[in-house]
Write a structure and sequence with these properties.
The structure is a single chain. By secondary structure, this protein is of the alpha+beta class. The chain contains four helices and eight strands. It has helices at 58-74, 99-107, 123-127, 137-143, and strands at residues 19-27, 40-49, 78-84, 88-94, 113-115, 163-166, 170-177, 183-189. The protein has a four-stranded antiparallel β-sheet with strand order 1-2-4-3, with helices on one face. A two-stranded antiparallel ribbon has the order 5-6.
Length: 192
Amino acid sequence: MSEPSGGGCLESLAAFFMSVVALFSFVGDGAFPAPQPEAEFVPVLVVELVPAEDEYSADELALAADIVGTRLDALGLLREVEVVDGDTIQVVLGADASVQDVSEAITGVGYLELVNFSSIDERTLLDAFVGQAIITTGQVDTFGEPLAADAIPNPDTGEPFATVLTNEGLASAAALEDEFGNWIVEFEFTEA
């Protein structure tokens, strides 16, 4: 899944990772300072992300919060994410969350992979892959296994789809419009 690229605070999520604060919270009816007898004390990790840039829109901040939430939810760490006071992203995680794992998930570069679908010749069959996780040679080579438990192989061969290019071969990629108003992706390759 690709993430939208944009200006402002979304240029780099690394700019958001400014402070980490560990807190404890009550779960249940949330009465504070004295919890109700049925309330369970559950330790949590609260991360506050403050934009490093002075100018950003509320939409950019909300989109950044969505991206951070999606990344941490995929790792099974997320309890809650929200924008507070219009200038801070507050992320609530389980106490077992590693600060290093959280930092890497928030600031890391996404995994980009271009895959060869040339053996899939029927358009209706190709449409069946929209939104479906697939097994690729790049995933197996890089991670040792598919990225999703329900990923499917190439139906023609029963093998993983062939990876043509991953982000390791790219210096940058940008979504642009061509002279006809169609979306294109411009790639700048590494010199390797």
